[in-house]
């Protein structure tokens, strides 16, 4: 995506970039598959490629674009443009060797159920809850709870920010989190840790808070670090701790 933070000039953002930053630290074989509007390729693709992760870029008419401001880790967002949705034909063979995939939608329309089913076939699939609550319209971002339940049929791990979760369910109780029908649900609390729900139990993962940092992309970095840890055999709670440690290092500036 094209992000404008605190009134600054456009910069690269979105899951492909912020997950890529984390993948560079996590290590191991990985690939980024993304879409980009033709006019934005000269700016965005070199910055993505500079991360050193193999990248496959599909062409699109439009790139997602956002403007955002922060009060601590509370974010206010304006949707400036909506990117093109993904079809099964867009996938090609880019995921042929992938055993685990993280989807980082920025709007509800990014990944239709039939595309998700194709991606998930024979794979562990992680899904960012932004794709459940962000309606495909420009203007101030207002979360919407009317998602298609078919989107979650093939999802193994659902990652939600706290405000996204509470837009969909009344609370973060085990009963509410179980209602998604997903084996693992991870709720993140900005710079204040996470909650992992698995096997009917919810467990809070605490972290030491950070102050005066730009938290943009923290959720993406957490998601990919968590999925990588799970793919490496770590239990859900241990995976969440490892992901929190990585995000802490990125935001604190100890990891570039």
Please render the helix and strand layout as text.
Elements: E1 2-5, E2 11-12, H1 15-26, E3 32-37, H2 41-49, E4 55-60, E5 65-71, E6 74-81, E7 100-103, H3 113-120, E8 124-128, H4 130-133, E9 139-140, E10 157-161, H5 162-168, H6 174-178, E11 184-188, E12 194-198, E13 201-205, H7 218-231, H8 236-252
Parallel strand pairs: 1-5, 3-4, 7-8, 8-10, 10-11
Antiparallel strand pairs: 1-2, 5-6, 6-9, 11-12, 12-13
Characterize the largest beta sheet: strand count, sense, and whether it forms a barrel: 6 strands, mixed
Round the Cα radius of gyration to an integer and report it: 17 Å
Specify the number of helices. Answer: 8
- Widest β-sheet, arrangement of strands: 7-8-10-11-12-13
Counting DSSP E segments of at least 2 residues, the number of strands comes to 13
**Topology as a string of helices (H) and strands (E):** EEHEHEEEEHEHEEHHEEEHH
Helix content: 25-40%
| First-last Cα distance | 20 Å
**Low-confidence parts, pLDDT < 50 over ≥5 residues?**
none
Spatial shape: globular
The average pLDDT is: 92
Binned strand content: 25-35%
Structural class: alpha/beta
Which key terms come to mind for this protein?
256 residues, alpha/beta, 6-stranded mixed beta sheet, 5-stranded mixed beta sheet, 30% helix, globular
Folded structure, characterized:
The protein is an alpha/beta fold and 256 residues long. It contains 8 helices and 13 strands. It has helices spanning 15-26, 41-49, 113-120, 130-133, 162-168, 174-178, 218-231, 236-252, and strands at 2-5, 11-12, 32-37, 55-60, 65-71, 74-81, 100-103, 124-128, 139-140, 157-161, 184-188, 194-198, 201-205. The strands form 3 sheets. The protein has a 6-stranded mixed sheet. It has a 5-stranded mixed sheet with strand order 2-1-5-6-9. The longest helix is centred in the last third of the chain and has 17 residues, at 236-252.
């Amino acid at each position: 995506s094209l992000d404008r933070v605190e009134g600054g000039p456009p910069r690269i953002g979105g899951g492909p970039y912020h997950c890529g930053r984390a993948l560079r630290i996590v290590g191991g074989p990985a690939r980024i598959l993304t879409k980009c509007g033709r006019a934005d390729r000269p700016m965005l693709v070199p910055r993505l490629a500079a991360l050193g992760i193999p990248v496959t870029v599909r062409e699109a008419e439009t790139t997602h674009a956002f403007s955002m401001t922060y009060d601590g880790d509370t974010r206010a967002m304006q949707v400036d443009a909506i990117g093109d949705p993904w079809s099964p034909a867009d996938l090609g063979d880019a995921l042929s060797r992938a055993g685990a995939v993280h989807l980082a939608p920025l709007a509800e329309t990014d990944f239709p159920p039939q595309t998700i089913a194709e991606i998930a076939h024979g794979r562990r699939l992680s899904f960012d809850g932004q794709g459940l609550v962000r309606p495909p319209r420009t203007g101030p971002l207002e979360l919407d709870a009317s998602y298609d339940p078919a989107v979650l049929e093939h999802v193994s791990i659902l990652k939600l920010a706290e405000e996204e979760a509470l837009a969909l369910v009344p609370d973060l109780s085990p009963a509410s989190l179980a209602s998604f029908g997903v084996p693992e649900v991870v709720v993140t609390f900005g710079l204040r840790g996470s909650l992992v729900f698995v096997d009917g139990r919810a467990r809070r993962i605490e972290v030491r808070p950070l102050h005066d940092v730009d938290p943009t992309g923290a959720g993406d970095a957490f998601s990919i670090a968590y999925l990588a840890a799970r793919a490496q055999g770590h239990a859900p709670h241990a995976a969440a701790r490892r992901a929190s440690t990585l995000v802490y290092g990125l935001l604190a500036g100890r990891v570039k």
